[in-house]
Amino acid sequence: KAPASVFAAINAITSCFPNVFMVSKTVDVVYAGWTRVQADLNCMADLYNTSTNWKYFINLCGQDFPLKTNLEIVQALRSLKGGNSLESEEMSQGKKKRVMNVYQVVDGQIQPIGKTKDPTPFNLPILSGNAYIVVNRGYIRSVLEDKRIKALIEWAKDTYSPDEFLWATIQRMPGVPGSTWPNRKFDMTDINAIARMVKWRMHEGSEDSLQAAYPECKGHHVRSICVYGAGDLQWLIEQHHLFANKFDADRDPIAVHCLEKYLRYKALIELV
């Protein structure tokens, strides 16, 4: 969807760095549609086929910002000892219609067409999660090569928001490197996964509330997600997550500027 001039500018920038590249196959992404996943699959394939023997894949979006230095991120990944870290838990009743009905893109929007989905291949249990994951190289290899996952991918192409269940479901498939068992005892929430700290309005509360997952947002909300303000920073840097979402430098540049300065200072201290 970006104009050609944007692609040209980004290509010019990436040509300066040996470890940065543009995806070879671009797609027009439709919100909550399959193309959202296809874009990630294209990136995974390109990255897997590079000459660099990388060990972990981290998927992020444009409004994420790191909470850790590069060294701290490397240490956190090593501590996983080959495991993966991503949200993967039982799907809520309200979301189940997303995988029980057939959806298609109509006039640029994803819409139900009044048909019921066939059962999942191999009777795989569908788990709930999100697109922002920390997974090892073997997981990506399985996504690209495992016949079970290829069948699941084909099945998922006419569902609603497949990025919010596909990776979570793959994480619970026996034999996938770094995966965990499908039993609910192995569920992982987004707050326990290390990828990103996201604050949802419904789970916020006063700092002394035992029912709240986290303190109230000090910035503002967009679609029930906290867009962090400067007042959120002290709490954020105390979390175990590698990144946080969301930031908006146009709305509150102080939050991003202070966090950037903080990480720069920590990185310099690490060199001493």
UniProtKB/TrEMBL annotation:
Its main location: Golgi. It is found in: Golgi apparatus membrane. InterPro entries: Glyco_trans_14. It is a single-pass type II membrane protein. It holds the Pfam family Branch. One of its GO terms (cellular component) is Golgi membrane. Pathway: Protein modification; protein glycosylation. It comes from the Eukaryota. One of its GO terms (molecular function) is beta-1,3-galactosyl-O-glycosyl-glycoprotein beta-1,6-N-acetylglucosaminyltransferase activity. Keywords: Glycoprotein, Glycosyltransferase, Membrane, Signal-anchor, Transferase, Transmembrane, Transmembrane helix. PANTHER family: BETA-1,3-GALACTOSYL-O-GLYCOSYL-GLYCOPROTEIN BETA-1,6-N-ACETYLGLUCOSAMINYLTRANSFERASE, GLYCOSYLTRANSFERASE 14 FAMILY MEMBER. Belongs to the glycosyltransferase 14 family. This is Beta-1,3-galactosyl-O-glycosyl-glycoprotein beta-1,6-N-acetylglucosaminyltransferase-like. It comes from Pundamilia nyererei. The gene is LOC102192120.
